[in-house]
Specification:
Blueprint lengths: L33 E3 L6 H10 L4 H7 L3 E5 L4 H4 L20 H10 L4 E7 L28 H11 L3 E6 L4 H5 L10 E5 L14 E5 L1 H16 L5 E4 L16 H11 L4 E4 L5 E2 L14 E7 L3 E4 L11 H6 L6 E4 L2 E6 L15 H9 L6 E6 L10 H17 L9 E4 L3 E19 L7 E10 L2 E8 L6 E21 L5 E7 L4
Parallel strand pairs: 2-3, 2-14, 3-4, 4-7, 7-8, 9-13, 13-14
Antiparallel strand pairs: 1-12, 5-6, 10-11, 10-12, 15-16, 16-19, 16-20, 17-18, 17-19
Length: about 500
């Protein structure tokens, strides 16, 4: 990202809300990422507990990414469908011009540091030669049945400095057709990996985990992906069931899946049906005006982390939301939001669609990254196995636009002063400002509930902007530039001591 990250975490720079008192915090990494709650908790109890929740190291690393990429690619790319059927002829998969280095270059130039590949979508077709299904690239004549998109993807991303993520859909319509998925089998102890005839693995590390027939199938595929393709930094699950009869629902073995991921990829964030990252609740890439990373959750269906409130509730973490969730919540948890959206109308490539405009993408950026969330932008490869030329250009234009919107921080090297309630920057001379970027030091939780930014002029401070939450990233867009030498951030309400990591002032160049 073009934005400098300045860290002000000494006690002298801490901002204390006018409605709260400073309380000594545990050292970073010692505080819990979730705290149990009870229906008998008062509002004060809930707010106090929320103030004590801290992110894990993997969550901090994930939130610092800002922008991540999604690559939907598979048989749907060639059939024109968005949801496959599971009975596709694998030979339809023919990306004869596959160039994952081209993907990586385009993503790098677009400002992305992590990319997630759809290793398996709901149709069950997998982009690596799995031992556990014939519905894969190995059953296609492409590259003589020796193609491995996942291998190429992982190697290319790392070669260009991009972290690797994998999306393995819990749904599997091909395994449904084979009587494995949603067959009503009981959970029993399974040894993972389950060795097969001709298995070339010698003395693999094994796990004994509870699973259904299909749950074991998923565990075996996860094992392959997480042990044979290098380090993985995000494992992405959704909660889809595919197009199966409603009375044939598969109860997913979330607890066992999470256990295996944690063991084999300990640094990987598990999203969005997972304990590390939550879905924001829409596929438009838009976060709430005030997005909280600490939200009430319940534990359901074999340990799945789930929303205590509706997934698309307009408020997930304010005091009012904590109280509203009190009858059903099991925990308050650090569960930050990921905003997914596709650069085109569809998730898979369709020749008749075009990428969103730079203006649209920039608006999405400010309403996701600028609202304490991470943007997950899908860029689907085409039938040749390339990112479309128009999309590649648009990614570069998007990054250049964000860089112009948020150029160098005018406050870099400026005189900084703080008191218990106010953080002041003296630029030394007057500058026009129309973009303000803020961040809390989330190692100490998310504390700010409301704040104002003020500029000094004509002998008095005047309000320039204000909002509710800050979190890991908050970007304020001023309707017109404001010229001033001295600027201040004033926290008007906070759950506990609010520690500010960034107070950046910009003059856009658009």
């Amino acid at each position: 990202m073009a934005i400098s990250r300045r860290l002000f975490v000494l006690a002298s720079t801490a901002l204390v809300a006018s409605t709260g008192t400073s309380v000594a915090l545990a050292a970073p990494g010692e505080a819990p990422s979730r705290i149990p709650v009870s229906p008998s908790d008062t509002e004060d109890d809930l707010v106090r507990k929320a103030s004590q929740v801290r992110p894990t190291a993997r969550q901090i690393a994930w939130q610092n990414l800002g922008r991540t990429a999604f690559l939907h690619f598979g048989v749907n790319t060639f059939t024109g469908l968005e949801w496959g059927t599971g009975d596709e002829d694998p030979d339809v998969f023919q990306p004869v011009g596959l160039d994952t280095d081209q993907w990586a270059r385009a993503l790098r130039d677009g400002g992305f540091e992590l990319a997630i590949l759809t290793v398996k979508h709901h149709d069950g077709f997998v982009l690596h030669p799995s031992r556990y299904t014939d519905h894969s690239v190995a059953s296609s004549s492409w590259r003589g049945g020796r193609g491995d998109v996942l291998r190429s993807f992982a190697d290319s991303m790392r070669r260009h400095g991009i972290k690797v993520g994998v999306y393995i859909s819990p749904a599997d319509e091909n395994q449904y057709l084979h009587g494995v998925y949603a067959n009503g089998s009981a959970r029993t102890e399974r040894t993972i990996p389950t060795l097969v005839d001709g298995d070339d693995r010698t003395n693999p590390r094994t796990f004994t985990l509870d699973a259904t027939d299909y749950g074991a199938h998923m565990l075996n595929q996860l094992y392959e992906v997480l042990t044979e393709y290098g380090p993985v930094d995000e494992v992405w699950f959704d909660g889809a069931q595919g197009r199966i009869p409603p009375d044939k629902v598969e109860k997913y073995d979330w607890d066992s899946w999470y256990t295996l991921v944690r063991a084999l990829a300990p640094d990987a964030s598990i999203a969005v049906s997972g304990p590390d990252v939550r879905w924001v609740g829409n596929e438009g890439g838009l976060a709430r005006e005030d997005e909280w990373s600490v939200v009430p959750v319940t534990r359901k269906d074999n340990g799945r982390t789930d929303y205590a409130l509706a997934y698309d509730a307009p408020d997930e973490g304010s005091r009012a939301a904590l109280v509203a969730a009190r009858p059903v919540a099991d925990y308050l948890q650090w569960w930050p939001a990921e905003c997914d959206v596709s650069i085109r109308d569809g998730w898979f490539y369709h020749a008749d669609q075009q990428p969103k405009s730079v203006d649209e993408l920039t608006d999405i950026y400010f309403r996701s990254v600028g609202r304490n969330s991470v943007l997950l932008l899908n860029i689907p490869p085409d039938t040749q196995g390339l990112l479309p030329a128009a999309d590649v250009v648009r990614l570069r234009e998007f990054r250049e636009r964000v860089d112009r919107e948020l150029p160098e921080d005018l406050g870099r090297g400026a005189v900084v002063r703080s008191s218990p309630e106010v953080f002041t920057v003296d630029l030394g001379t007057e500058h026009e400002v129309d973009r303000i970027r803020l961040a809390e030091d989330i190692r100490h939780g998310q504390q700010v509930e409301s704040f104002v930014v003020e500029a000094y002029g004509a002998g008095a401070w005047s309000r320039v902007a204000g909002a509710g939450t800050i979190g890991a990233s908050r970007i304020l867009l001023l309707s017109a530039p404001v010229r001033a030498r001295r600027w201040r951030l004033r926290v008007t309400r906070s759950r506990r001591t609010a520690r500010i990591a960034e107070f950046a002032l910009h003059r856009s160049r658009i």
